[in-house]
Amino acid sequence: MATSRARALFAFCPDWPVLATGRPPSEEVAVVQANRVVAASPAARVAGVVVGMRRREAQSACPGLAVVARAPALEARAWEPAVAAVEEVAPGPEVLAPGQLALGTRGPSRYFGGDAALAARVAGLVEAALPEAWRGCCRVGVADGLFTAGLAARSARPGGPLVVPGGGSAGFLAPMPVGALCTEDLQAVVGARPAELAELVSLLGRLGVRTMGDFAALPAPVVLARFGATGARAHRLAAGLASRPVTGREPPPDWSVDAELSPPAENVQSVVFVARVLAEQLHDRLAGSGLVCTRLAVVAGTEQGGTLRRSWRHDGALSASAIAERARWQLEGWALANQLSGVEGEGTGGPGAGRVTRLALVPEEVRPDGHQLGLWGADAGARDRAARAMARVQAVLGPAGVVTGVLQGGRDYLDQVRLVPWGEPREPLRPGGPVTGPSEPATGAPRPARATGRAKDGPPPWPGRLPGLAPCVVHPVPVPVQLLGSQGEPVTVSSRGLLGPVPAYLVVGHRGRRQAVTAWAGPWPLEERWWAHQARRRARVQVVAEDGRAYLLAREHQEWWAEASYD
Questions:
Q1: Of 321, 343, 368, which one is at a domain's C-terminal end?
Q2: Model-level pTM greater than 0.85?
Q3: Averaged confidence pLDDT in the chain
Q4: Is the pLDDT of residue 405 over 50?
Q5: How far is CA 327 from CA 73, 235, 260, 275, 419, in A?
Q6: Which of residues 321, 338, 368 is at a domain's end?
Q7: Which residues contact residue 309 at a Cβ distance below 8 angstroms, ignoring those fewer than 6 apart?
Q8: Under DSSP, is residue 517 helix (H, G, I), strand (E, B) or coil?
Q9: In the 8-state DSSP scheme, what is residue 555?
Q10: 353 with 339: CB under 8 angstroms?
Q11: Do 299 and 362 meet the contact criterion of CB atoms below 8 Å apart?
Q12: Exposed, middle or buried: residue 556 (CB in 10 Å: 0-12, 13-18, 19+)?
C-alpha cells in the first residue's frame, strides 16, 4: 500500500488519567482538576459521571465514587513504557500528551506491509505495556493528516484500528459536526486556543454551517477574511489538509544545550536540578533569536555508553518552566522503566540501566515568537522607572494630566472606556466589558441587531451595544457626514427602524468628496431614557466606502454623524 509523506498515525488511551492512578476499570473512579471531572473510569461513566461535571455533582450521581486529584507527572511517567515499546519498531514517536502519541507512517508502513498492519502492531505494543485489566482500551487511527488521524482514532473500536484511505480525509470528515474542531483530546494537534475555537464553532452554527463538509466548501480567501487566522487553520483541517508533518525540521545544533555530569548523578533529582538550569539557558538562547520551542527532545547519556532520547510536543510555545517540567517527567519515566538508576533510592537498575553522565535539551522544532510584550517589556525595573516618570509628569500637569483607559459596560464606544488618573484603582464604573469575537459581515440589506448571550465568565453584555469587533478609531467629537441615495436624496430612518432610500453615496466632512457605498449594515435603532428630559433617540449604520474605509454612522436630530472608523 503506497503512503504519502503527510500520512500520520495517532494512538491514544481515552481514560489515561484514570489508568495512570493504577485503579482497575471496574472501580468507580474520577480524576478531578480545578474541581471538575477530567476523566472517569468505565464503571463511573455507567453510574452517570460525565467529564466536565463538578466534583459534588459527580459524587451525587455516584455515591461510591473515588475522587483522585490529577497528577500530570504521574501520567507522563506511566506513559513512558508504552512509548518506549513503540520506539522499538518505529523511530521517532511524538508524545503529544500523556496517553497520546503520533507517528509518521511513511517508513514504518512500508516495512510492516501497510498502514493497517502498522496500526495493529502499534496498538498491540501499547496494549502490552498496560495493566492487564486495561487491555483493549487503546485506539489507533491513520490518515493523511494528524488531525484526521486523531478523529479516526476516536471513531475506531478498541482492538480495531481505523485507517482512512489516502486522499479520503475530506470525505471522512465531511459528515462530522463542525464541533469536532473543539475535541479536547486533539488540542495539541489543532494548535489554536480552545476559547477561540469554541467562539468560531458557535458562530459557524449560528450561520448555518453545521458539518465539516459545509465548512470546507467555503472559499479559503473568504474564510481568512471573515474568521482570521484561527478560521483559516480550522478550514484547512476541515478540508482534510495536513497542518504539519509529524516530524519537525532540525534546527541549527547550536540552539541545543547540554551538561556533563561528573561524577555521574546518583539519583534522578540531581539530574532534574541540572535540567532546570538547562531549560533556562535554552529558553534565553531561543528568546534572543526571537524564537520559541514547540517540539523538544530530552537526551540522556548513561555511564554504560547508551543514549536515551524522547521528543515532546506542545500545542503552543514552551516556556522555561514547561521545558523543565517535561524534562522532569521524562527522567522520572525512564527511571521507573529501569532505564536510569535510582528514584529516591528505589530501583537498582536492570538491563540498560545506568547513571546519567550527560543531559541535553534539543529544540527539534521552533517557530518565530508571536508574543508581544507589554509597553514596558518584561523588565520589572523598567516598569518601576516608567511609574516614577509618570508620577513626575503628573506632578507638573495635575492628577488628570496622565490617564489610562479601563474597559467597562456601555452602549457607545466612548462610554465603554473610562479614563482613570495614573495611580488610582483601575476599576470600571459599570460592569459588562466588551465581548470580543468575530464581527458580523456587512450586507446589502437591513439586519436587526442580535443579542449576544451571557459571557462565559462575566456579566451579560449591555443591551443596545453593537455586535462584533470594536472600531480602531472613535471620534471624541462626531464628524458630520452625508448619507445619500442613488438620486442624491438624503437617507432617512423611519419610526419602525427602516432605511429609505438604500444608501448609495457617502460624503465625510464638509469638504469631503462623494464616494460610492459598497456595503452597509443596519440600522440599529437606539432609544435611551425615553421617560426623562434627557431622552435620546438615534439609529446607527455601518457603511463601507469605495476607498475601502468603513464607518459607524449615527442619525440624530435629522443629521448623520460619523462616530467611529474601522480599519
A1: 368
A2: no
A3: 79
A4: yes
A5: 10, 34, 16, 6, 46
A6: 368
A7: 297, 298, 299, 300
A8: strand
A9: E
A10: yes
A11: yes
A12: middle
